[in-house]
Specification:
mainly beta, Immunoglobulin-like, six-stranded mixed β-sheet, 2 helices, 28 strands, 48% strand
Length: 373
C-alpha cells in the first residue's frame, strides 16, 4: 500500500486545489486523470485514491456508480473556467460515470488504518451549452473537475449489530483538477438497434462503444424504439457491446466494425436472447461479509472458508481466509450456499447460509467450535 504522500504526488498529474473533506471523516479522497486534455467523444479516465486516516478498519464497496440504492455512488462536478467574452451558460456541464460493459463484479474492500485503495473509473464529459435557453453551442475549453464519493447501505445497522463491523457510510469530496475539453474532429458514426427474439424493440439496453484496444469510448442507452447512435468518431475499428442491466445472468453480446474513408458509417442490429448460464461467471455475484468467532464470541483468525453453490447445472466454489478480526469478504451467488470452515486445532464445521436476491450486501456471523482436537 502506498502512503498518502505518494498519493498527493499522483494528484499532481493536473493542477488541483485542496479537497473539501470533512476533517472528522477518516476516509480521504484524491483524484488523478490519465490525460488532462480530452477530445470529444472520448471520456476521462479517472483514478480514485482513497485513504483511511482513522484508527479502525473501514469496509468499502468496490465499483462506484452514478446512482443506486445500496453501495457506492459517485457525483461528478464539472464547471467551466469562464473567460471574458464567454456567452452565458444555459445548460450546465455534467459528468456521467460509465457502467460496467459486461456483467458487473462488485465486491468489498477491507481498508485498514493508514492503508490506501485505488479504483479506476471512466467519466463521460458533457460540456456546458451557451445561451439562456440551453440550445446554444457547446462551451469548449478549460473545466474544473471534482467528484463526491458516497456510500449507503439499507441494512448497515443490522450488519453492525450482528457482525460488529463498520461499513463506511457518508460522503467525501475530492480535490479539484483543471482539464481541457476539446471539440470532436471525427466524422464517423455507428448506429443500430436492439430487439427481442420476436423482433420487438428493446429500450434501456446498455450499449458500449470501445476502441480496438477495448478501451471504453462512449456509452448510451437504447430509446423506446430500441435505437442507439454514436457520432463524431475518428475512422477506426470499434467494438460495440450490448447488455440488458438488472438481470441476474450475463446477457452481454458484442460485435465489431471498421469505419473507413469509403464507409465512415456503420450499422448493427442486435437480437438479445435470454441464455441459460453454464458457468458461474455468467451469474451475478453479491458481496457477502462473514465474521467467524469461537463459541465464546471471540473472533478467530486464519479460518479457511470454502463456499459451494449449485443449481444442478452450474457449480460455484469460492474460497477465502479470515483476517485477524475474523472477517472474510466473498462474492457469492444469491440463494442457498453451503459453507465449510477449517482452522488448525479446530474441528471442521459445515453450515448453510441463504444469500438474498437483489443488490446490496449480506452479512453472516458464524461460530466455529474451536476446542482442540
Amino acid at each position: 500500500m502506498r502512503s498518502m504522500a505518494c498519493l498527493a504526488v499522483l494528484g499532481l498529474l493536473a493542477p488541483f486545489t485542496p479537497w473539501a473533506a470533512n476533517a472528522e471523516d477518516p476516509l480521504k479522497l484524491l483524484i488523478s486523470v490519465e490525460q488532462p486534455r480530452i477530445t470529444a467523444p472520448y471520456p476521462a479516465r479517472v483514478t480514485l485514491h482513497l485513504h483511511n486516516s482513522g484508527q479502525e478498519v473501514l469496509w468499502l464497496y468496490r465499483r462506484a456508480r452514478s446512482q443506486g440504492t445500496d453501495g457506492s455512488m459517485l457525483e461528478v462536478h464539472l464547471e467551466p473556467v469562464m473567460v471574458p467574452g464567454t456567452r452565458e451558460i444555459g445548460t450546465p456541464a455534467r459528468g456521467v460515470v460509465f457502467e460496467s460493459v459486461g456483467l458487473p463484479h462488485p465486491r468489498f474492500v477491507r481498508l485498514a488504518s493508514g492503508e490506501d485503495y485505488t479504483e479506476k473509473t471512466t467519466l463521460k464529459m458533457v460540456p456546458a451549452l451557451a445561451g439562456t435557453d440551453g440550445s446554444g453551442e457547446p462551451v469548449w475549453g478549460r473545466y474544473r473537475l471534482s467528484v463526491t464519493y458516497r456510500a449507503h447501505y439499507s441494512n448497515a445497522e443490522t450488519i453492525q449489530r450482528i457482525l460488529d463491523v463498520g461499513l463506511w457510510q457518508g460522503e467525501v469530496t475530492s480535490n479539484t483538477i483543471e482539464m481541457e475539453l476539446q471539440p470532436p474532429a471525427g466524422e464517423g458514426s455507428v448506429t443500430g438497434t436492439a430487439i427481442s427474439p420476436d423482433g420487438r424493440p428493446l429500450d434501456d439496453v446498455l450499449v458500449s462503444l470501445s476502441d480496438q484496444g477495448e478501451h471504453l469510448v462512449d456509452q448510451v442507452w437504447t430509446d423506446a424504439e430500441g435505437r442507439f447512435s454514436f457520432t463524431h468518431l475518428p475512422l477506426a475499428l470499434y467494438w460495440v457491446t450490448v447488455r440488458r442491466p438488472n438481470l441476474p445472468e450475463d446477457t452481454t453480446v458484442f460485435r465489431h466494425l471498421i469505419l473507413t474513408p469509403s464507409e465512415p458509417s456503420g450499422a448493427i442490429e442486435f437480437a438479445l436472447l435470454r441464455r441459460e448460464p453454464y458457468e458461474p461467471q455468467h451469474l451475478l455475484h453479491k458481496p457477502v461479509l462473514f465474521r467467524v468467532t469461537d463459541s465464546a464470541g471471540r473472533p478467530l483468525n486464519k479460518v479457511k472458508m470454502e463456499v459451494t453453490w449449485s443449481s444442478g447445472t452450474v457449480l460455484d466454489n469460492v474460497k477465502g481466509e479470515g483476517s485477524d478480526d475474523g472477517t472474510i469478504a466473498l462474492e457469492l451467488i444469491p440463494g442457498r450456499n453451503f459453507v465449510t470452515l477449517k482452522r488448525r486445532g479446530c474441528p471442521k464445521e459445515e453450515q448453510r447460509v441463504d444469500v438474498t436476491a437483489g443488490g446490496g450486501i449480506d452479512g453472516f456471523k458464524l461460530t466455529l467450535d474451536c476446542s482442540p482436537n
